[in-house]
């Protein structure tokens, strides 16, 4: 099977193309892949025919293939994408008047086992490569004919725990941000973690890195332990401590996500505890009322409860209610499970 070129950084591409090729040829191929998003290597019209055919004979772009596409009444599109080894992941396209957002997967399945999330039921199959992460962006922007000047936000909030695949997440981020390539600003990319504490510290040291979002989802150690078993290993107090030490850039704030589950973590007392937990952080809170799913043993709170929770948190820090996108096609947070 030909090797994929998507996922190679400039120097790797240079080596791949051979030392006898001048650097500007590598530049042409790099731009064709990441900037022009060519679907096929034979279409790189700037290359001499022999080089083009040599490349196309040994390599492929490596775009994930669209196995299925589901259209929501709200404009959201959920994609089932097939990777080179036949495994599949999901990615979600969310258009808005002034921008588009893509929700990316970072693993096939997920090992973290949060009790309210459908992806957890899959378990982990494998990590995605950097090329498979970047490839989701290339496949979805092409399928939606996104114009190059349009604002694009990326959230690594699809299937998987990104910080358990940190080297590939960081390599993908460098590729996505490279001004010579896709040129997406760092501040338009967000990575979300269930709270893998040592990896949060490591992420903070990366020269090119996405913004950080943390799935808090509970206001006490006990409740978090039940909902998110990862807390047995990575305790809530240590999570807040690593956040306190996190080297935020001047324009940056930590985002905390909080899934509201009726009668479980949605009381006024929970909201007040969230405020106390985050009091000394430069933080904002995104609330998500549970998106239901088969096999998920929780219920969605009433809108009034969500508003009351928000009102308490919003007295102390920015707090927003995230409106679910693509609920009717199982595209919303926690609903990705790789099937029809
Ligand atoms: N593993 C990472 C990336 C996934 S992000 C993480 O946990 O952060 C997915 C986001 O959706 C998380 O904030 C999670 O708390 C939220 N989520 C999961 N299941 C959900 C559900 N059923 N309804 C609403 N939000 C959910």
* Mean of all residue-level pLDDT scores: 95
Strand element count? 14
Q: What can be said about the biggest beta sheet?
A: 10 strands, mixed
Number of helices: 10
Specify the overall morphology: elongated
Class derived from helix and strand content: alpha/beta
* Cross-sheet strand order for the largest sheet: 3-4-5-6-9-10-11-12-13-14
SSE pattern: EHHHEEEEEEEHEHEHEHHEHEHE
Alpha carbon gap, first and last residue:
28 Å
Which residues form runs of ≥5 with pLDDT under 50? none
Portion in strands: 15-25%
Over all CA atoms, what is the radius of gyration? 21 Å
Which cofactors or ions or other ligands sit in this model? S-adenosyl-L-homocysteine
* Helical amount: 25-40%
Task: Describe the structure in brief.
This protein has helices at 10-17, 23-34, 49-58, 130-143, 166-177, 197-205, 221-227, 236-244, 268-278, 303-314, and strands at 3-4, 59-60, 65-71, 77-82, 88-95, 100-103, 107-109, 124-127, 152-156, 189-193, 211-215, 254-260, 283-289, 319-321. Strand 13, helix 10 (303-314) and strand 14 form a beta-alpha-beta unit. It contains ten helices and 14 strands.
Overview of the molecule:
By secondary structure, the protein is α/β, with parallel strands linked by helices. The chain has 10 helices and 14 strands. The protein has helices spanning 10-17, 23-34, 49-58, 130-143, 166-177, 197-205, 221-227, 236-244, 268-278, 303-314, and strands at residues 3-4, 59-60, 65-71, 77-82, 88-95, 100-103, 107-109, 124-127, 152-156, 189-193, 211-215, 254-260, 283-289, 319-321. Strands 3-4-5-6-9-10-11-12-13-14 form a 10-stranded mixed sheet, covered by helices on one side. Strands 1-2 form a two-stranded parallel ribbon. β4 and β5 form a beta hairpin. α1 (10-17) crosses α2 and α9 (268-278) runs parallel beside α10. It is elongated, with a radius of gyration of 21 Å. It starts with a strand and ends in a 19-residue tail after the last strand. The model has no long low-confidence stretch (mean pLDDT 95). The chain binds S-adenosyl-L-homocysteine. S-adenosyl-L-homocysteine is lined by residues 112, 116-117, 157, 161, 192-194, 215, 217, 257, 259, 288, 290-291, 333-334.
């Amino acid at each position: 099977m030909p090797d994929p070129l998507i996922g190679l950084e400039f120097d790797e591409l240079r080596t791949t193309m051979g030392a006898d090729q001048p650097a500007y040829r590598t530049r042409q191929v790099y731009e064709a892949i990441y900037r022009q998003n060519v679907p096929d290597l034979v279409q790189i019209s700037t290359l001499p025919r022999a080089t083009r055919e040599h490349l196309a004979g040994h390599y492929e772009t490596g775009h994930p293939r669209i196995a299925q596409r589901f259209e929501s009444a709200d404009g959201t599109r959920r994609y089932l994408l097939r990777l080179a080894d036949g495994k599949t992941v999901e990615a979600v396209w969310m258009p808005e008047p002034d921008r588009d957002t893509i929700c990316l997967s970072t693993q096939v399945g997920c090992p973290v086992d949060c009790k309210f999330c459908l992806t957890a039921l899959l378990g982990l199959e494998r990590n995605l490569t950097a090329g498979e992460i970047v490839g989701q962006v290339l496949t979805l922007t092409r399928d939606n004919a996104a114009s190059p000047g349009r604002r694009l936000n990326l959230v690594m909030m699809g299937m998987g725990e990104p910080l358990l695949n940190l080297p590939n997440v960081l390599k993908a981020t460098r590729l996505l941000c490279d001004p010579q390539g896709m040129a997406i600003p760092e501040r338009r990319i967000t990575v979300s973690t269930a709270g893998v504490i040592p990896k949060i510290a490591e992420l903070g040291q990366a020269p090119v890195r996405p913004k950080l979002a943390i799935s808090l989802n509970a206001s006490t150690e006990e409740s978090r332990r039940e909902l998110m078993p990862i807390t047995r290993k990575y305790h809530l107090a240590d999570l807040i401590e690593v956040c306190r030490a996190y080297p935020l850039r001047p324009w940056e704030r930590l985002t905390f996500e909080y899934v509201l589950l009726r009668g479980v973590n949605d009381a006024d007392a929970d909201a007040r505890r969230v405020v106390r937990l985050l009091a000394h952080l430069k933080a904002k809170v995104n609330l998500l009322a549970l998106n239901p799913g088969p096999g998920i043993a929780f219920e969605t709170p009433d809108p009034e409860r969500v508003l009351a929770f928000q009102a308490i948190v919003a007295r102390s820090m920015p707090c927003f209610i995230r409106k679910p996108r693509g609920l009717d096609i199982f595209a919303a947070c926690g609903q990705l499970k790789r099937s029809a």
